[in-house]
Amino acid sequence: MTHTAASGIAAFTFEMGVLKRLRRSGWWQVGVRDPESVAEHSLRVAQLAALLAAEEGADPARAAYLALWHDSQETRITDLPHTARPYLTKPDNVAVTKDQVAPLPEAAAATVVDAVTEFEAQETPEARCARDADKLECLVQAVEYRHSGQDGVQEWIDSSYAALTTDVARRVADAALTQSPMSWRG
Amino acid sequence: MTHTAASGIAAFTFEMGVLKRLRRSGWWQVGVRDPESVAEHSLRVAQLAALLAAEEGADPARAAYLALWHDSQETRITDLPHTARPYLTKPDNVAVTKDQVAPLPEAAAATVVDAVTEFEAQETPEARCARDADKLECLVQAVEYRHSGQDGVQEWIDSSYAALTTDVARRVADAALTQSPMSWRG
Amino acid sequence: MTHTAASGIAAFTFEMGVLKRLRRSGWWQVGVRDPESVAEHSLRVAQLAALLAAEEGADPARAAYLALWHDSQETRITDLPHTARPYLTKPDNVAVTKDQVAPLPEAAAATVVDAVTEFEAQETPEARCARDADKLECLVQAVEYRHSGQDGVQEWIDSSYAALTTDVARRVADAALTQSPMSWRG
Amino acid sequence: MTHTAASGIAAFTFEMGVLKRLRRSGWWQVGVRDPESVAEHSLRVAQLAALLAAEEGADPARAAYLALWHDSQETRITDLPHTARPYLTKPDNVAVTKDQVAPLPEAAAATVVDAVTEFEAQETPEARCARDADKLECLVQAVEYRHSGQDGVQEWIDSSYAALTTDVARRVADAALTQSPMSWRG
Amino acid sequence: MTHTAASGIAAFTFEMGVLKRLRRSGWWQVGVRDPESVAEHSLRVAQLAALLAAEEGADPARAAYLALWHDSQETRITDLPHTARPYLTKPDNVAVTKDQVAPLPEAAAATVVDAVTEFEAQETPEARCARDADKLECLVQAVEYRHSGQDGVQEWIDSSYAALTTDVARRVADAALTQSPMSWRG
Amino acid sequence: MTHTAASGIAAFTFEMGVLKRLRRSGWWQVGVRDPESVAEHSLRVAQLAALLAAEEGADPARAAYLALWHDSQETRITDLPHTARPYLTKPDNVAVTKDQVAPLPEAAAATVVDAVTEFEAQETPEARCARDADKLECLVQAVEYRHSGQDGVQEWIDSSYAALTTDVARRVADAALTQSPMSWRG
Fold first, then answer.
1. A90 lies within 8 A of chain E by CB
2. CA–CA distance, C156 with C82 (Å, rounded to integer)
3. B83·F185 Cβ contact <8 A
4. In chain D, whose CA is at the least distance from the CA of E148?
5. Under 8 Å CB-to-CB from C12, ≥6 apart: which residues?
6. What range(s) does the HD/PDEase domain occupy (chains A, B, C, D, E, F) (predicted)?
7. What end-to-end distance do the CA atoms of chain F give, in Å?
8. What pLDDT, on the 0 to 100 scale, is given for residue E160?
9. Which of B9, D159, E138, F6 is most buried, taking the most CB atoms under 10 A from its CB?
10. E152–A149: do the CB atoms touch at under 8 Å?
11. Is 90 exceeded by the pLDDT of residue F1?
12. CA distances from E71 to B98, D44, E79, E92 (A)
C-alpha cells in the first residue's frame, strides 16, 4: 500500500472519530442533557440489524455492515432533528459518502459507497433489517431514558414503531416496551 | 417468531446498551476524566476492520462483523486494564458470550457465538484484520487524546503498534502518528 | 394577559431551554468532547456586543439584544458546522423565527422578529457589533480551548478574525491572542 | 482604541467565560449531578425579561440588558445557595461589578455598572421584569428537571413563584406548571 | 526523608488519583450514564463508618480509616460488578495493596497494609462498621438515584440491606428508605 | 438506637452526599470545564494525611480523620474561591458543623465536631498533617491537570507549596513536581 493510501485511511479514520463526540440531537429536545453519541447509537443498530437478519433469513454480517455506515455522513452534516425538516432539504447521503471516501484507496472506498448505496436504496432484505434496526434502537433507547426518569419519550417510541417494516422488529419492539431494561440480568 | 424469542432479543439488546455507558478504563489511568465508551471504540474498530480487510483482500463485512462483537462481553465483566492482569485470570470470552446469548433464538445466538469464536481463534484473515483494527483504533484514539492536550499516551501508542500483525495496519498507524486528526477537513 | 398568551410564552420559554443543552458542533470536529452550549456562547456574544457598541458609539443594550436572539433558531435546526455547507442550503433565520414566535402574544412576538430581522440585515451599527461579537466570542473560546490543551483551533481563530468588521473587535482579538485567559485575575 | 483598552476588554471577556463553566449550585442540593451553568441560566433570564417587558409595556431590550449582567459577579463569588445565608453576608453586587470593570475603557465600564446598579435598585419596570425573569427561569428549569425525573424541585418552584411581582410572570408560571416542556413542538 | 521515599509517596498519591476518575460500574447496568466515582463513594463510606462506630461504641477514627482504603485496590483492578463473578476469581485485596505500597517508605506502607488487612479479616468492630458503611452507602446512593428518577435500583437496595450486620446500620437504612434525600435541609 | 437518632444519621448522610456533586470551584477559573468534586478531593486529602502522619510520627488514622471532615461544611456554603475573599467574610467552620450535626445522636455529633475543631485549631501534629495534605492534594491535582493539557495551574502550585508547613510534605511536593502522574505504573 502506498503512503498516500495509508494516509487516506488515517484521515478517514480520524473523520469517523467525530461520531464518538457527536450527540443524537433529538434527545436534547426531549430534555436529556447528555444523550448518547451517534457512534453509540450506530453500534447497537449494527448489532440489532444482525439479530433481525438472522431471524428473517437474511445475511447478518451484511445487514450489520449496512448499519455500520448508515449515519457515517453525520461527521459533516451532524444529526438533524425532525424539527429541521421544514427548513432544510435532506442531504444526499451517497453524495456525502463519496466526498468522505475520496482519500481512501479504491477497494476501501468502494466497500463503503456500496454499503451506503444499498442502505439508501432499501431494496434488499439486509437493507430493510438495517433500517428497522435503526428505528428499533431508537425505540429501545427511549425505553431506557424513560427507565432513567425521562418523561416525554412517547413520541419517539410511536414514530419509531410506526416506521418498522418487519414482523420480527415489531415483535421485539412489543417485548421491549413491556419488559425491564434490566431483564437481561435474570 | 415466538414471544419468548422476541423477549430474548429485547433482553439481549438492553444488555448491549450497557456498552454505551461503560468507559474504556485504561484512559482513566492516563488521566482522561471522561474517556470514550466501549461502544464508541467498538464502532470505529468495526469500520477500521472493514477498511483493512478491503486492502488485504479479505471480506470487509465479515471483518467488521467480528469486530462488532469483540468487546460485547464487557457488559458483564467490564473493560479490564492491563494493570489487572497479575491479579485476575483473563475470562473466556466465548463462555461469556454463550451465557449472554442464552435468551436469543437459535439463529441469532449462533451468529454471535460464531463471530466471537472466530475472532478469538485468530485463524482467518478477517479475524486478524478485526484484531489489528482493535489495536489501531486504540492508537488513533491515543493520538486524538494527545491532540486534546493529554500527555502520557505514548505507552498506549507503543503497545498498540507492537501488536499489529498486518502491513496495512502498520502503514496506517505510521500515517496516523504523523498527520493531524483534522487532516480529513482538507 | 389571556391564558393563551401566557401559555404561548411558557411554550416559547421551554423551546429556548433547548439552547442550554445544544452543543456548539464545530468543536467536536476539533476534538473537544464536551464543548460549551449554544446558550453559553450566546450569553457572552451578547455581553461582548454591548462592550463593542459602547466603544463604537452604538447602543449597547440594542447590540446585546440582537445578539441574544442571533442563534435562537438553533432549537429547531441545531448548530450546523461549516462542513455541512456543500450539502445543505442555509435556512432562512427570519422564517424560522416567525414559526417559533407563533404562540407568543403580539408585542412579544414582534420584539423577537424585529431583533432577528435587524441582525440578519446587518445594516445598523448594532447589528454589526452583534455579528462581530459572534465571531470574537468564537475566537476567544478557541484561545480558551487552546489554554486547556486543545490543538487544532487555529482555523477557528483565523476564520473568526477574518470575519471581523470593526476596528474595535480586531483590537480586542489581537489582545486576546496574546494574553492569558487568566489575565483578569490580576 | 488604545491597546490598554483592548486588553482590558479581552481580560473582562475571559472573566465572563467563567460563567460558562460555573454551575448553578442549588440543584446539587436537589440531587442534579450535572446542572446547567450560570451562563445558560442567564441567557434565558434575558430572553424572558424581554418577553415580560414586551407584555408589561416596558422596554424589552433594556430589561434583557439588565438580566444579561445580573449574575455576572459570580465569576468571583460563585453561585451561593440559600443554605449559605446564615453563615455569609450577601456581597454587594455593585461593588463586585466595579472591581470587575476596572480594566474596561470608560464607556464600556459605565454601561455595565449602570445596568447592575439599575437591576439592584429594583425601581424601574425593566428592573422588575428582569428580576421576575430570574425567578421565572428558575421555576421553568425546575419543571424541566422534574420532566427529566428529578424529585424534590417543589421547594424551588414555590420560592420562585412567591417572589414574582408582576401579573404577567405569575400567569406564565401558572402555564409552565401545567403544560409539557415539549409543548412548543406542537 | 530520602528522595526515594518522597518520590514513592508522590507515585502512590498519583495512583490514588485514579479513584477520582474510576466510576462505580454497577450503576451503568442500572442505566445511570454518569455515576459517581469510587473516590466519591469511598469518602462517604468513611464518614458513615465513623458515625456507625460512634453509636456502636467502637473507634470512629479507626473505622473511618479502614473504610478509607477499602476500595483503594481498584486503581489497578477497577470496580468489578456482580455479573463478573462467574467469570473472574475475586482478587486478593491484601496482595494488591502490598504491590501498591511497594514504593512507600516503611511506616506509610505499614499503616495502609494494616488497615486493608484488618478490613478484609472482618474481625474487629471497626472492620464491621466499615463494611456496613460500605453497604449502607450503596443503599443511600440507590435512594438518591431513585430520587433523581432512576428506576431499577431496588436490587441494589435489597442486596445492600441484606448484607448489613449491625443493628445501627439497619436502622439507618430503614430511615433512609422512608425519608427524603433533602430531609437535612429542614 | 431510637428512630429519631437513625433518622438523624440518614439525614446527615444525605447531606454529605452533596459533596459528591459539588465541584472544586477554583479550577473553573483556570479553565477546567469538569473539575473533580469536593468528595474526590477530600478522599485523597485523607489518604495523604495518613501518609504524612506516618512519616512524621503522628497518628495516621487521626490525621486522616481530621481530613475527612475538613471540607464537609461546603454542603451548605459551597467551595469559595480565593477571588471571593474581598467580598465575603470567611464563615466559621465549627459553627456550620454544629448546625450540620444537630440531627445526629450525641456520640456521632461529638466525634464530628471534635474533629473539625481540632483541624481548625491547627495545634496538634495530626491537624498540621491534615492541613498540609489539603494543600499537597491541590498541588498534585494541579500537576495532573497540567498533564492533561491544562495551562495556568502554576499559581495553584505556588500557593499550595507556599502553605506547606512540614518538611515531609515539601519533599513529596518536590517529587510530584518532577515525576510523571503515571510513575506508579512502573
1. no
2. 11
3. yes
4. D150
5. C100, C101, C103, C104, C108, D51, D184
6. 34-148
7. 49
8. 98
9. B9
10. no
11. no
12. 31, 43, 8, 12
Instruction: Note the pLDDT of residue F90.
Output: 87
| Domain B3-180 classification at class level | mainly alpha
Three-state DSSP string of B105-124: CHHHHHHHHHHHHHHHHCCC
Return d(Cα C167, Cα C173) in angstroms, integer: 10
Q: What whole-number distance in Å separates Cα of residue D48 and Cα of residue C111?
A: 12
Query: D103 CB contacts (<8 Å, ≥6 apart)?
Result: C184, D7, D8, D9, D11, D12
Model ipTM?
Answer: 0.98
pLDDT of residue C90: 87
Do residues B92 and B155 lie in contact, with contact meaning Cβ atoms separated by under 8 Å? no
Q: Does E148 touch chain D (CB under 8 A)?
A: yes
D149: left (phi over 0), alpha (psi -120 to 50) or beta: left
Put simply, whether D62 touches C (Cβ < 8 Å) is yes
pLDDT of the residue at D141: 98
Q: Do chains A and F touch (3 or more CB pairs under 8 A)?
A: no
Nearest to B144 among C31, C83, C155 (CB): C31
pLDDT over 90 (residue C1): no
Got the DSSP string for E72-108?
A: TTHHHH----GGGTTTSPPP-HHHHHHHHTTTS-HHH
Give every CB contact of residue A162 below 8 A, 6+ residues apart in sequence. Answer: none
Burial D143-172 (b: 16+ CB within 10 A, else e): bbbbbbbbbbbeebbeebbeebebebbbbb
Q: Is D19 left (phi over 0), alpha (psi -120 to 50) or beta?
A: alpha
CB A184 within 8 A of CB B101: no
Mean pLDDT of each 10-residue bin along chain E, 186 residues long: 95 98 98 98 98 98 98 98 94 97 98 98 98 98 98 98 98 98 94
Residue pairs between chains A and D whose CB atoms are closer than 8 Å:
31
The three cell numbers of residue E51 are 458515625
**CA geometry: angle at C90 spanning C89 and C93, to 5°?**
140
Q: What is the pLDDT of residue C42?
A: 98
Convert B156-172 to b/e letters by CB count within 10 Å (16 or more is b): bbeebbeebebebbbbb
**Closest CB to F34 among B33, B151, B152:** B33
Q: How confident is the model at residue B109 (pLDDT cuts 50, 70, 90)?
A: very high
Nearest to C144 among F31, F149, F155 (CB): F31
Question: Can you give the residue ranges of every domain in chain A?
Answer: 3-180
CA dihedral E39, F25, D44, C38 (to 10 degrees): -70
Is B63:B130 a contact under the CB 8 Å cutoff?
Answer: yes
What torsion do the CA atoms of C38, C43, C46, C47 make, to the nearest 10 degrees?
A: -140
pLDDT the model gives residue E1: 85
Measured distance CA(F132)–CA(F141) in Å, rounded: 14
Tens of pLDDT, residue by residue, chain A (186 residues): 899 999 999 999 999 999 999 999 999 999 999 999 999 999 999 999 999 999 999 999 999 999 999 999 999 999 999 999 999 998 999 999 999 999 999 999 999 999 999 999 999 999 999 999 999 999 999 999 999 999 999 999 999 999 999 999 999 999 999 999 999 997
